[in-house]
Amino acid sequence: MSAKSETHVDVGGTVVRVSSPDKVVFPDSGITKLDLVRYYLDVADGALRGAGGRPMVLKRFPKGIDEEPFFQKRVPENHPDYVETATLHYSRGTSAEEAVIRDAAGLAWVVNLGCLDLNPHPVRAEDLDHPDELRIDLDPMPGVEWTQIVDVAMVAREVLDDHGLVGWPKTSGSRGLHILVRIAPAWDFRDLRLAAETLAREVENRAPGLATARWWKEERGESVFVDFNQNAKDRTVASAYSVRPLPDARVSTPLDWDEVRIRRPEEFTVRTVPARFAERGDPHAGIDDAAGVLDGLLALAAELGPAGPPPREAPRGGDRSGRRVSTMPLIEVARTKTKPEALEALEAWKAKHPDVVGMLHPADVLLDGMRGSSSLWYRVRVNLQHVPEPERPAQGELEADYDPWAGRTWPGRT
Question: At CB < 8 A and 24+ separation, what contacts does 356-359 make?
Fold first, then answer.
């Protein structure tokens, strides 16, 4: 029997078309596209609290979680009337008319496009220049355990409290934690990012060795990176109740602070979260009533002084990526189109250097998802800081050398 080509879901009187409803999106648990629509309808109140009324980037997985997604800033031209739009203008001179959803029907429409997680900007559609949310992304480096992430989260909570702000924790849906902070929409993105960077620096000051605010990944060691970069105007973060593209269909789930230490990210999936939501509601239900001000963090920024000079860039004629020259002994292993290819290339490199592999720490292997114009590509590097200098392998030919810019033309260039 062939799968249905489409079905229709009545969402509060609005009929939403769902194409390929029987398509299996998560093979390990048999979760279908229609299951995902129903999941978001079950948690709609919480999901809309995080993403509703905000312009969002559409991160689409048309071929399922085993294939790379593509990012669509511009809303499809044939979007329904119940999906609004807002035009964002970026510093580089570009703009994009992005989708704004306000109800459960909008959630169903987004899922039908192949979106798993929701990626809203920290602004409301009514005021695109003044963010109303500061986002703290606690990103653990390899080798970091959950208990260390929790310790850093508690320090971040203390810093927020000391500066008159309330943090609302949620699992990231992967390994880390997010802390959301509602603020009055009275500051621009420059102030927001400065406040976030200041908070990160203060967390590092209070928890040296456990937390870091260092910009470059290879300098962080086995610590929790307090990622302040997520507060730039062009950045988005998976919002509350977002489904993440992991085999177990994990969900970015709001928590109470007393749950943070005793719960684990893997507990919260598409299969388990609806029952939790129905039983206890949304732990973030009061977030909109707790908007604070950035005055305290901005005063601390002045007290701490500048974080340091901007990152030093490599000459354009040298490193083709345009990135600065690292002070760490880094070698590049591969550039690939997909993550499985990156992991395969890493294993090939390890097979050639078994003696070196035994000296590496978990955080010495750097696998980065690099944001392209509409999709991710992957870069693999190895930090040889723990390998004696005479035994460090030289930079060799890459195991894989994917060029994410091949065939692309650049305006104003010949």
Answer: 356/384, 356/387, 356/391, 356/392, 356/393, 359/386, 359/387, 359/388, 359/391
